[in-house]
Give the backbone structure.
Amino acid sequence: MPARLIESLSTTEPLAEVFSDDSVLRAMLDFEVALARAEANLKIIPASASQAIARAADSAAFDIAAIARETLRAGTPGIPLIKALRNRVAQEDSGAADFVHWGATSQDIADTALVLLLKKAAPILDADLAQLQNGLQALVAKHKDTVMLGRTLLQPATPVTLGLKAAGWLGAVGRGRARLNHAFSEALVLQLGGASGTLAALGKHGIKVGETVARQLSLSYPEAPWHTHRDRLANVVCACGILTGSLGKMARDISLLMQAEVGEVAEPGGSGRGGSSTMPQKRNPIGSTIALAAANRVPALTAAYLAQMIQEHERAVGGWQAEWTTISEVIQSTGVAIASMAEAAEGLTVNEKRMRANLKSTRGTIFAEKAALLLSQKLGRERAHQLLEQTTDPERLRDRTLSEVLSQMPEVRDCVSKEALRKLEDAGDYVGMARQFADRLVRSSPNQPPRRK
Amino acid sequence: MPARLIESLSTTEPLAEVFSDDSVLRAMLDFEVALARAEANLKIIPASASQAIARAADSAAFDIAAIARETLRAGTPGIPLIKALRNRVAQEDSGAADFVHWGATSQDIADTALVLLLKKAAPILDADLAQLQNGLQALVAKHKDTVMLGRTLLQPATPVTLGLKAAGWLGAVGRGRARLNHAFSEALVLQLGGASGTLAALGKHGIKVGETVARQLSLSYPEAPWHTHRDRLANVVCACGILTGSLGKMARDISLLMQAEVGEVAEPGGSGRGGSSTMPQKRNPIGSTIALAAANRVPALTAAYLAQMIQEHERAVGGWQAEWTTISEVIQSTGVAIASMAEAAEGLTVNEKRMRANLKSTRGTIFAEKAALLLSQKLGRERAHQLLEQTTDPERLRDRTLSEVLSQMPEVRDCVSKEALRKLEDAGDYVGMARQFADRLVRSSPNQPPRRK
Amino acid sequence: MPARLIESLSTTEPLAEVFSDDSVLRAMLDFEVALARAEANLKIIPASASQAIARAADSAAFDIAAIARETLRAGTPGIPLIKALRNRVAQEDSGAADFVHWGATSQDIADTALVLLLKKAAPILDADLAQLQNGLQALVAKHKDTVMLGRTLLQPATPVTLGLKAAGWLGAVGRGRARLNHAFSEALVLQLGGASGTLAALGKHGIKVGETVARQLSLSYPEAPWHTHRDRLANVVCACGILTGSLGKMARDISLLMQAEVGEVAEPGGSGRGGSSTMPQKRNPIGSTIALAAANRVPALTAAYLAQMIQEHERAVGGWQAEWTTISEVIQSTGVAIASMAEAAEGLTVNEKRMRANLKSTRGTIFAEKAALLLSQKLGRERAHQLLEQTTDPERLRDRTLSEVLSQMPEVRDCVSKEALRKLEDAGDYVGMARQFADRLVRSSPNQPPRRK
Amino acid sequence: MPARLIESLSTTEPLAEVFSDDSVLRAMLDFEVALARAEANLKIIPASASQAIARAADSAAFDIAAIARETLRAGTPGIPLIKALRNRVAQEDSGAADFVHWGATSQDIADTALVLLLKKAAPILDADLAQLQNGLQALVAKHKDTVMLGRTLLQPATPVTLGLKAAGWLGAVGRGRARLNHAFSEALVLQLGGASGTLAALGKHGIKVGETVARQLSLSYPEAPWHTHRDRLANVVCACGILTGSLGKMARDISLLMQAEVGEVAEPGGSGRGGSSTMPQKRNPIGSTIALAAANRVPALTAAYLAQMIQEHERAVGGWQAEWTTISEVIQSTGVAIASMAEAAEGLTVNEKRMRANLKSTRGTIFAEKAALLLSQKLGRERAHQLLEQTTDPERLRDRTLSEVLSQMPEVRDCVSKEALRKLEDAGDYVGMARQFADRLVRSSPNQPPRRK
């Protein structure tokens, strides 16, 4: 039995529900019922068999532990499940049992079940993405002109705005959501190929049966079975990988800004959230932590999925058999990262006072570029840079600001006006296109309403 | 100096050229020239400076080894390159040197150079993909009805056609090509943000300069700089990962079919291709080998790229600095896999005789499913399965075929006609929708002409 | 709730038990009980408190679902578990509740619990490794002189022996077992550092408490707490990664040899093992399939673990929080691969007849190297190679063998004796050091009795 | 041609030299010369041939570009190199050409060359590791009692010492160095197996030849050839992966401590080191950046190596062919990370004043645990925690410290002495076992002198 405790940081409740034993079992049974119904419609199997199968397909009646145990010997959950289903059908209608799984292969049921689970997971992820976008849009709108320190290689740089920073997160999330939904819509296709992917056992009716099953399960019908062509699922996995990368970036930013020494933003607290077992004063960036844990894990799982795409002939020896685990983990880890960041974005506390203080504590050195532009017009770039390397030396600066030091240098006073020197350290005056870029990013990431479930 | 010998199996000549020192250098210089030109157009820097910069930007004149050496201390190739360019400009026009790289940051030049290299690589990959699709389409067309053994978990299964198998490869390649080209078109955007991504040093002209530079370099202009938002490039990397996965599957299939014991297809031979240093008789599946090597490597590189997406604030500490290596390897490995498979597909020799022989050597056991369908109509599925498990036992079968054994069993003769038993082992009669599926796959993967370079 | 169905191919029952909720919970409680006991021994907390804690620490009494739920908010399972334990203790002895978890931090309990789980898993893996070595040693002993085709790049090469092949597997398994056990013994250390890893809350007794707790839990006591130094666990993960790589190689070999067209070995069959839902005749290489699935997955999980080693300061933000999942999966996947290969090795059926037939079907071309050595003594290497490239051409060879063709060439007859030509295709005569190498490998991989549990 | 510019951040000069074309070529030629010499000693080939081969084996005389080009068609660099060597030998002594590469296979030369490169790389890494240990030992010695803020989840925690922090890094580096050297010593073994790993072409002399070649190349002689058993090399790769993980942790810590807002340590600056193309005031944590880039990359490359361990039979189809690239990158990335951290450790500037200021700026909240211990003795843990959650609320604290607030509460004054409250915020008084743990770590990581090259 896998441990909920072990996986508790890698999923959310709704997603754990989607990938629960009961949900898996029901998805497999849904496939068998839809298959039988389609075959009965097309007079391939008796209508009574289809009805018996539908009646027997009650997930609560199956012994999951036994099926799991036999799976390891069979190499696929399809075989023991079908056997168990046949047994149940046979109890009621022994003739009908023969028509269980008619013409299909065990990977058909496993793959279609997986796709059905993805179909349930997609709107959950999407709703949380919509909420995250909402939270970020509000943040951008509120902080369009909130100036803060830019930071490159974790060192102070020229100022930015919180609006631009949040708009950057938003842009990536918007692109990620579009990619993910596109990948889902491409991947939500039926798997039905029979023993070797030709549906030979269904004679001339193969495609017709497939189309009917797909319709019943509200899946698309692909050009052909795809037992060993996993690129569509790989694309879903990759879209998750890219998205958690973007969420990890956002989480890293927030956790850094939330350092006590920086103190510019804080994740929401609240009962049981981010506390410590020993230190009562602690308020940990728990949403960011969870998202970063996911962003550390999903790339490797993506590699696992891509590596196992090398699948032999009509059915793989090894490449396919671990897919369920990998995909279910990727979706759940991505989901917990989205949900964590949505909660963080919505509840983010901004400390503008600390932002101003942090800007000020650089003593104007971050405006060295701005000063260099001013000075180099008269002194040339080289002399200007040289001069600024000296003046921004902390030893020399001590308690003074850059403009104070500069204004005491005759060479500088000769070429730059007092007015210009006074405005040198006005951060809001030096954020360039921050507002325009933020606007452009917001416009490019419109928040679509979440997908219907 | 990196060793060509070490990387010789991981690239092709045209791609090695794209990612060569000279090409990298030229891309960086192209950025600087385009930037200066745009700024001169907008009267931000003197026209004479722009011209001096253009004249100095001759890649042959730079000491690549020195720049590489200084890169390790600077943390980015942009800094030493700009310094070297300034020195060259200064030799001619000392005033102009100040205007080199005006308003930009070192990551602007590095990222844009990378994008320019991708722009050169894209049509190379695409042309080889087109060739691969051509080769596969011809294969499908020629072998629509070439029946061969299906194989699942490396064991004989019901028959398929080579046409369907090749159409499966084709479908995956077509989808992969579409994804890759879409990813490229999304990623080929200018990087220009200045120190913190606000273009503050360019005052109000920031976006105008950017749009002009982008136009000159034939790149798109993004909503905003993307120094620490790498999802578009990640999408290119992922598209490569998925594509090499599909190529690896094709290569695995070919190398398996080419085993002497199977002997159903052979890669083209030819001078120096796939020989052995010791065994004169050898003809190795060298294209598949190269493609599999790539498919073993690219997934991990994809993970490396996704993992490093967690980039701090306005410029990363570590996440960004290894990107060039990772992306250039991903593109080159993908490229060598495509080229290898294109060559293999075009020159693939098919041995239909061996295909028939391999079908036959199963002594009809692969038609057990077909027989089961026949028998279960009268005997019920359970009895039919039981009967077939016995008859397909190799000990029992010995030199006889399944139909021979069956036709000697009274229980069978009672319920199946001689005619049906005779046709039991007609493989061509049991390929279901193979032809239709192949047709659908071909129609879904139209071969677009390659992208203009 | 995670689904047993989803993970059924990625674990064994005994290992799933080790990483079950109850087992995790008990390990955490064991830590708390041992801590309290040690502190009571050292008079840091009252003996009555220690006793109350021990009494309350009954795993059956805890609501695992509730703890899992709160874990997501707390960021660690330690916090809700400690809270629940305090509540239980308080019901009996409200004063004692204060002394639960005295001086420790939540990562202390989580890490030590993980180590305790590893301590339970280690002998399970080791026993299966011993069984695997036994199986392989028997195989080597029995088939020291069983000659079979060597295969390079999946093409026929000069002959080898099955003894050497199995000894190669054995050597890798032996080295892998030694590495894994060494890694475990290094990693089975207590974690106890308190809030920041200094044990400040325990005053001067810190190390003494630690040593006592370690002794009680039969763990080693490390030089210092290792909250953000994960190299010892990384080494366990890597040892698993290397070992599954070696097992994957063995599984690949077996699955290839088991192809119907090769037919040289077969995995054991048996009820429910490796059958097909549709094809009654199938006998799939199910052990190899499971091992290959693990070998496809564990490398990526290894990367996940190594990537998350970059942990901040005294406690990580994200790097640590997904470790339980990753490690528990690595151990279980490795375990199922070992068990699968142990079963395969013990029950492997060898078909020497097919081995001889496959050797023969090369028509002597695999002895081209041998012939080249013979011929080049007289004709020079170049002429010999040229000659052999011609004669090994299948077109030319047709139904004849290499020695037949050669013996008809005057140029050859002039320089090689009839006797030598006759022995040319004697495979047993051309296996070089196969037996010696196999002996050396066996001697280097002595089968230690399994670790005591 | 691979670009030095692209790889400039992923290697050091000495390691780039080791893996340069000339070095690779020389290693391959060294193998051929040693092989010929051993065979001449054992009278297998003429002494004159051995001498001719030795004379021809001048790396400068080979056309590397041509060999690289042919490698792609041959699938291995061994084949074109041997051909070129034969051509050169033939020019002088046409008979001798036949004896080039006698009895060996192309993977023998490639693998042994790789091992020879590793043998050259090992002491380079080791010398830098020794330097890194020296730097860290000095840091520990100097800062045993330098108290600083502990930080968990990037939030302030109870104090630690810089000595303990640096000792933690040292411990991990020491263990990593031991693992790496052990892995190297296990992996530095000759590869010599001939066509299928039996050395059949050498008749009875196989092992004797191998032992002689190994001795000449100062390599160990393994139990048997290991063409498709790569676990020893995998262990080297993993040891690098673990070590870069530990270095990445150290680099992350340093880059975080070097943030302007924290300001507790600084990497050494110096000409061209860590500057900015635009911001003259910048001093970037360039060593940490380079190490983090490596630590982001090496885990994925480790996964690539482990994944490709699944190698077929006697020689792999794809698994082996990309190994050179992967291993050479792993070694170089690890090397640049070690060198960067060695430089950082040696030149690290420590700002004790900022450490004290940062401790103070928490206003005593980090001593909440300490206070809780004090208070709970009288008030019980629950009341104490409750009280401290209130008092550590920043809103309530404002400009006061925790002890100031507490000392104004009658409930507190009743149970804690003034003296105890006064000492509450004495950080040096609350570092527990920091010094002892640091001492233990130092003792466990003795700095061995570097390996002889």
Notes: The two ends of chain D are 30 Å apart (CA to CA). Chain D touches chain C through 101 residues (CB under 8 Å). The longest strand of chain D covers residues 155-161. Chain D has a mean pLDDT of 93.
